[in-house]
Amino acid sequence: QLAMQKIAYSVLLFIVTQELTPLLLSPTNGGQFAAILKTMNDGAVSVRDAVVKKSCIKFFRELLTQWKEPFDSSDENFRRALLDIVCQPLIPGVLQSILCRSFNERDANQVRIVSELSNVMLLVASIPDAKGIYAQPLSSQLQATTSLIPGALQSILTATSPSCLEKSILQLCKAIKQCD
Fold it and tell me: Which of 51, 63, 54 shows the shortest CA–CA distance to 16?
């Protein structure tokens, strides 16, 4: 079953990286857009394979890059659906998988997940109408996790570059493991 899922993830990633995203929004496919987002979210959060996880997060990064600015009001519902899934289940879910004990910060493929997530988080933070749905849930989720590590939440929420955010997340990951 994972082999079939990998094909689906790869095809969807190919569509967005080649900027063929209008195919996903066409009258034929538009009704399935929420299901596509859910499938890719499940891949990013639930699949253990680091390459699949990275690919699914990259799918969201590519969409956010293409849709950073508000666009045609007929497509605004698609943009809102994207922001909702990225801010609520995706970012907290991937962050939780990174902060769990099984995450190996020495594995290049797993570090790439942090890199992709950092790009997604900064893209969302840069979208004016997404700030409210992004910062509060993230702060709430991380509050308990980061209470043992002074300044960790602040360094994540105030990072201004992907590399700074990546470094903050990896430092938090290491600190959590040391506290266990």
Answer: 63
Q: What one-letter code names the amino acid at 63? A: L
**CA angle (179, 116, 180) in 5-degree steps:** 10
Q: Which two tokens stand for residue 177?
A: 């493991």
The DSSP element (H or E) to which 169 belongs, if any, is helix 162-179
**Cα maximum dimension of the chain:** 51
- Helix (H/G/I), strand (E/B), else coil: 104: coil
DSSP conformational letter for 47:
-
Question: Tens digits of per-residue pLDDT, 18-47?
Answer: 999 989 988 999 899 999 999 999 999 999
Q: What φ, ψ does residue 118 adopt, rounded to 5°?
A: -60, -45
Return the amino acid letter for 117.
L
Task: Please tell me the pTM assigned to this model.
Answer: 0.89
Q: Is 68 exposed, middle or buried (0-12, 13-18, 19+ CB in 10 A)?
A: middle
